[in-house]
Amino acid sequence: MSNLKQSAAWWCFVPAVMTPEAFVQAAADIGYNAVELVPQEYWPLVKEHGLSIASVGGHGPLTDGLNKRENRDRITREIEANLKLAVEWGIPNLIVFSGNRNGLDDEAGAAITAENLRLVAKQAEDAGVTLVLELLNSKVDHPDYQCDHTPWGVTVCQMVDSPAVKLLYDIYHMQIMEGDIIRTIQQQYPYFGHYHTAGNPGRQDLDDQQELYCPPIFRAIEATGYAGYVGHEFTPKGDPAAALRAAFTLAANS
Fold it and tell me: Is the pTM for the entire model greater than 0.70?
């Protein structure tokens, strides 16, 4: 039986297939520890059901992010404001984004992203909140996104050199870009502050119709001593409550 803490992503279920109340109630009934990426107006609803909020966005948009010096003041202000909210509401992670390349080479993009993150790293440390730079695929879902490979993200974290700046290792996105999921977790886990899951292809249920076999992946995460949340960020094929339960049970029994 796994001890991994699990969360589920709001946008995958609300409003397309569930009401806010139904989603939160289902997550609580199933045994989830948290939900994430919740619009602020629904934070009280989440807390009323005894759930935590695992992550929210640190700034926006993901296409125009930390790899531009001209975004520095705007993004710094947004992260500082969201750090205050995260402390108030007990949110452990703020998700941050590299932005698209737009012709910027990867070495320069990493240096600028690290420069900008260093400006807010100490504040995040003092707040006890982790800024998780999300790894996304640029092949299918987010064309031209710069933080699209684990080594690039690790380089940024190494340059910032703060315990409050890590990566959001999204298993779905990195299966598309790199594969070799378990070995990457085993080798790079010190740089991973949060995890997301989804089946590939399709970004749907963690079932036997997709190419990832999830139980050993969950075991690999737990074997690193990881104490944070694993967030299920997939769109359900059928009954949403059943999909939430199946994902939770799969991880819990891994």
Answer: yes
CA distance 102 to 82: 27
Count how many domains the chain has.
Answer: 1
Which of 98, 102, 100, 121 lies closest to 110, judged by CA? 98
pLDDT score recorded for residue 6? 98
**For residue 248, which of 51, 72, 111 has the smallest C-alpha distance?**
51
Provide the CATH number for the domain around residue 123. 3.20.20.150
Alpha helical stretches, state H, 14-61: 20-30, 43-48
The DSSP call for residue 228 is S
The Cα 47–Cα 31 span in angstroms is: 14
Q: What is the mean pLDDT of the chain?
A: 98
Instruction: Tell me which DSSP letter residue 199 carries.
Output: B
In a domain, 163, yes or no: yes
**100 strand-pairing partners:** 145
**Owning domain of residue 61:** 54-136+150-168+189-197
Alpha helices in 148-213 (DSSP H): 150-160, 171-177, 181-188
Give 96's strand partners: 133
Query: Which is nearest to 49 in space by CA: 85, 3, 81, 8?
Result: 8
- Quick check: is 159 in a domain? yes
100: exposed, middle or buried (C-beta count within 10 Å: 0-12, 13-18, 19+)?
buried
Q: Does 249 reside within a domain?
A: no
Q: How far apart are CA 66 and CA 124, in angstroms?
A: 16
Predicted confidence (pLDDT) per residue in 4-33, tens digit:
999 999 999 999 999 999 999 999 999 999
pLDDT above 90 for 2: no
